Amino acid sequence: MSWKEAGRLSRVAFTELSLQAIYAFRQGNASPPGPPEELVPRARRRVLQSKAIVSFVLALLALATAFALRLSETRPVFFPPEVPSAAFQAGIVTGLLSLDVAFLWWTGMQVLPTFLSAGILPVLEPLPIDERTLNQTAGLLYFRLFDLPALTVLIGTPLLVGIAAGPWVALALVPGVIAVVAFSLALSLLTGRFFVRRVQGSRGGGGRAVVRWAYLVLWLVPAFAMFAFVILAPAFFTALGDLALTGPSLASHLLIASFPFTLAALPAIAASGPAGLGLDGIGWAVFLAAIAVYLGLAAWAVLWVVGSVRAIGLVPPRVTAPGPAARFDLHPRNAIVSVLEKDLRIASRTPGFAFLILLPILDAVAIGLLTYVRAPGGSAAFDIALAAVMTAALLATFFGPAFFAIEVFAYSYGRTLPLPDRSLLLGKVLLVLLMFLIAGGTVLGITLTRVFDPVLFTAFILAELPAIVAASLLELGILFWRARAKGLPIPNLYAGAWFSILVSVPGLIVAGLPLAAFEIVRAGGVTLGLSAMAVAALGELGVVAPLTLGGESA
Amino acid sequence: MATTTAPAPEALPLEVEELSVAYGAHRAVDRLSFIVRPGEIYGLLGSNGAGKTSTIKSIVGLVRPVGGRLRVFGLDVLERALDTKRLTGYVPETSLLYDALTPREFLEFVASVRHLDAAVASERCRSYVTAFRLEAEFEEPILTLSNGTRQKVLLMAALLHQPPLLVLDEPLNSLDPRSVRIMKDLLAGYVAGGRRGILFSTHTMEIAEQLCHRVGILDRGVLRGEGTLAALREKVKSGDATLEDLFLQLTEEGEGVRAAVESLRSPG
Known about the structure:
- The complex is a heterodimer.
- Chain A has 20 helices and no strands.
- Chain A folds into two domains: 52-314, no CATH class; 335-549, no CATH class.
- Chain A has helices spanning 3-23, 39-74, 85-117, 120-124, 131-165, 167-200, 206-219, 221-246, 250-256, 261-272, 281-314, 335-347, 351-373, 380-399, 411-414, 421-447, 454-486, 497-502, 504-521, 526-549.
- Chain B has a domain at 11-87 and 165-171 and 196-268: Rossmann fold (3-Layer(aba) Sandwich).
- Chain B is globular.
- In chain B, strand 1 (14-23) and strand 2 (26-36) form a beta hairpin.
- The longest helix of chain B has 15 residues, at 118-132.
- The interface between A and B is large, with 48 and 52 residues.
């Protein structure tokens, strides 16, 4: 057995993994319509498309960095004059490396649950394959999840930067991109193990649900990091300028020792020399030691990943011994509320769905915190309220249809229960509404100490509320209508991802119309604008609700 | 709250009339007819791929038949789907459940959808948990449970509302001997009142022989024989034949079995 054999085995295993990732057969999903022999090529194509999209974003980031590095040499007017070239370039590359880590880690967290729950590695265990080949196969299979994005970072990024800033700069970037890929793969695996042990296998009960949701917020850190970086970039460059002015200091030494600034400083030095980075004697010693530590850690991370994938892939979800439950009471609820409760419980152990629920809420947190970074102006409360309602509305509406995919779990069993379509639909609408209200309430809570105007905020949220209900009803109603017309189980619609995006378009229009109405008449005063918004939203609900809730299939 | 759909007093628990199920060009069930009488456990027997699961999936609304009629207590399954689902408890062949829920969370969802009273649901739940010894797994995610335990959870969900019709697709497959015994006694008692009915699919002849009042033998989508064990013995003119013998004779697989055993004894 050899790496060649491991490569062959991992190729076969990855085909199965792709099939499960796209069609979720092991979760009880039914085969979609069409010839069965088309399933595997279609699954492969869709996985490749997903990788290509992430790689495209990573290539765009590299292109933007190359462009910024090129511009920093010609010093255009928007170049911050107080920041020396090397510090500015190191700052730019720090942004690139941070976003690369965030994207790769985020990708890993999206695919790890499928990787671990598809049970691919346990299938290989009883086969007569030696330990070394099994470990190599597991490592290669894991790398295949990231191959195209990781290669984009490892090869594409230095290439693009090299074209813009020269071969030495590209070469100096190589340690940085190697560390980025190594750390991202290790972080993905570490958080994946964490998920399997602490989230997916967590027992029931209210207290544990709170802990699970707290873990899932942690899960969103990379996605949130991308958002935070964009928000905090101006403050970061201002701080870099201040540090350059004060010269070598404890702060500049700490900065040069911080990942990824350490490795981002290498191409900056290759391009513009060390001036402005605060590198005195101690600074150089700290800098070189930090490079050695990060490269050592990267090597260790690669070895850890190759050695641990198999063990983690075989770990059972439960790590604590089961204990008898204290009580066996059941608390049945209204059918609509029970759909909401079921979805929240499933989402609390399924990061993909938790992500959809938490993103609008974290977005609201970011908007709220923004008021603490930027001083609020005269119309701050007004602008923040509008921004908060708009983003919460659009995100909640955009992700709304995806909640139907929860029905993919045990979908066949669920269809044998006497649950009316209307109850299922309203349960999902309730979830979207809940997300919108929590997101709106979060901004209100965070910004109260900065811009105290709870009446205005509440009025905005309430005026938009009927439009959110109308938008969700419309999107989910279209899904039901299409499922009935095609005779398909609803979750199967998601085997065609284009439809889930398409169905969001009318929803986004319905959610956006009242906001547009507000913009049109806002010159006449906030009260008039809010009234127009509320009238438009109620009008939409009046049209959409009878259309979607009018009929009921028995 | 209780379910609002009550079974019609004179109607049969289940009527299957000229049922046909097809997947593309393949006809899985061909003009199948049988009934489940009040107070009866009806066994649907057949080899793998005989059409048992397709028949059952049609009854519970998972597969749309291409022909025939299905009635649960007189209500048409296609026209009154919600009502017939209220009257039915179903255990699928594969224990595909909401893996991310615990048995408690799953049963609470089922009880909510079936509009069960909290006290009634809790009382029944406690009884089944004790009977199936599910105390230790009650708060564990279903994902972490063994196949047998998942099967017990499904049986509990099917029995929670005490439906007048139980549709069970290979329900005892993964159960331990203790639970099998409990289930057999429970099912026998379940129909003893004379109003309820059970449709029970299996390919384990021993269980069918012990449990079913009548059996239907299904082969490649067609009913080859139906009746009590005594009636089937009379049909094949064999007074002491076991159900296994009858099955092989009626499906004309006796010769095939002997040939397969011979070839396995002298492979190559």
